UniProtKB/TrEMBL annotation:
Encoding gene, per UniProt annotation: MED10
Cellular compartments annotated: Nucleus
Protein name in UniProt: Mediator of RNA polymerase II transcription subunit 10
One GO MF term: transcription coregulator activity
Broad class of where this protein is predominantly found: nucleus
Origin species: Protea cynaroides
Amino acid sequence: MDDISQNSSSAAAAGNGSVTQTNAAEDPKQNLNEVINSIQKTLALLHQLHLTVSSFSLASQLPLLQRLNALVSELDTMQGLAENCNIQVPMEVVKLIDDGRNPDEFTRDIINSCIARNQITKGKTDGFKSLRKHLLEELEQAFPDDVEAYREIRATSAAESKRLAQSQSILPNGDVKIKAEH
């Protein structure tokens, strides 16, 4: 039985070396998939270890040691694979997980925060539009000729800006159109 544990350890060590060599040429998505597979294997090993420990007897000492060795080997493999993955996780997500909460709460909170900021900004822009409209109405009553000239200048300027934007592939909001590459 010692041969089995040594064979599995050497196979895992050999597997670890080959994975590290091939990962350099592979894409990040493949590296992530390998880490995910290693995590799942580690969870399965932990489950087996839990079952062995919960029903421990003197006869199950050797399987316990083999499972511990397999767990250590898989954790080593996982660490090697993880070095090839560049994933950035916000600390808030890690703290949520440490607190036993769902990390999806972080995403939901960020989206709700963006929605709230968007509503505030929309309220401000609507307020300025309303103020502009009110000021134009008041100015039109006091200076009708000047307001008419202002509207003509504004219309001419808007038409010129639109024509210039179309010729330069600029969107009305000032963003530049990006040509799709096929």
